[in-house]
Amino acid sequence: MPRIEVNGAQVAYADTGSGACVLLLHATASSAAQWRSLADMLQPGRRVIAPDLYGYGDSDAWPGQAPFSLAAEAALAEAVLQGCGPIHLIGHSYGAAVALRFALECPERLHSLVLIEPVAFHLLREEATNPTTQHLFHEVKELGCLMMAATVSGDYRNAMARFVDYWNGAGAWTRTKPEVQAALAKRVPKVALDFWATTTESTPLAGYGRIGVPTLVLRGAQSPRPTQRIAELVAEALPAGRLKTIAGAGHMLALTHKDVVNAAIAEHLSRASAETWRPAAA
Predict the structure, then answer these.
(1) In sequence order, which ranges of 154-257 are alpha helices (DSSP H)?
(2) Is the same domain home to 225 and 241?
(3) 3-state secondary structure of 101
(4) What is the pLDDT of residues 91-115, one digit of tens each?
(5) What share of the chain is helix, strand, coil (3-state, %, to 5)?
(6) How far apart are the C-alpha atoms of 47 and 63, rounded to whole Å?
(7) Which end of the chain is more exposed for a tag (fewer CB within 10 A), N or C?
């Protein structure tokens, strides 16, 4: 994989094919490798770029020169787009939250957007005064606090076990191979930073109304309620947003239901390529 220096850190990224650019942003505790099947499907005819975000895959950890934020991760994503015109941007989970920030920072770079269950937890913070939904923010905040506490105490393994079971269902951790468990446990400090970035982001829901490109928001019918609600909020806020629910899928639908998800993405990109659009008014 090629590497580029971003903010003093070495960032690795996959860069294959040629043609219209597609940027893929992976989930927390994952890497660019999660996109292999989608990248293969999108070629030929497109250039597919998939970075390892800070602290994952072959990329260096966040250098710690300032408080971490979604804007910092979006700047990493922008840095790997050398020679690209307008792009199709696809993100899953944490990568989708980064994609939302990217869309605000670089609207001129986008041709279309796909958000697979964005963990834009700050949007639940906005709803924290609503008795019907306030428990959703507290649910994810509790998980984030666990990861931060584990970073301080060093209890990485037990924290990651809770994290994996929350997103994949009870018992998922025990079904994970020991060598994969060991690798995942080492990622706890970056997972804590991801929670920090997604809960402290300041953009209000109304701010996303400036994203005018065709947007597909995907969610799993069996996903945790917090991310199901975020998908609803985002799809409603984006002027050209469209929500699609994948039956039988959970939060990791980009992997567990990749055939259905990949087909939906391909259809969206084809539709977006045939459309003309203009950014929404500020």
Answers:
(1) 156-168, 178-185, 188-200, 225-237, 253-256
(2) yes
(3) helix
(4) 999 999 999 999 998 888 999 999 9
(5) 50, 20, 35
(6) 29
(7) C
146 lies in which domain range?
134-196
In the predicted model, is pLDDT for residue 74 greater than 50?
yes
Instruction: Report which secondary-structure segment, H or E, holds 262.
Output: helix 258-273
Q: Which of 151, 168, 196 represents a domain boundary (last residue)?
A: 196
Are residues 10 and 93 part of one domain?
yes
Which H helix or E strand runs over 46?
Answer: strand 46-51
The total number of structural domains in the chain stands at 2
Beta strand 3-6 pairing with 110-116: unpaired
Q: Residue 79 has which token pair?
A: 């840095």
91: CB partners within 8 A, 6+ apart: 24, 25, 26, 97, 98, 99, 100, 114, 115, 116, 118
Are residue 146 and residue 75 in the same domain, yes or no? no
- pLDDT bin (cut points 50, 70, 90) of residue 43 is confident
Contact between 225 and 136 (Cβ < 8 Å)? yes
Q: Is residue 69 part of a domain?
A: yes
HSE, CB side, 13 Å, CA atoms: give it for residue 155: 12
151 lies in some domain: yes
Tell me which residue of 64, 115, 61 sits closest to 88, measured CA to CA: 115
Choose among 218, 264, 216: nearest CA to 241: 216
- Would residue 148 count as lying in a domain? yes
What CATH number is given to the structural domain containing 61? 3.40.50.1820
Say which residues have a Cβ less than 8 Å from residue 193's Cβ, sequence separation at least 6: 54, 55, 62, 68
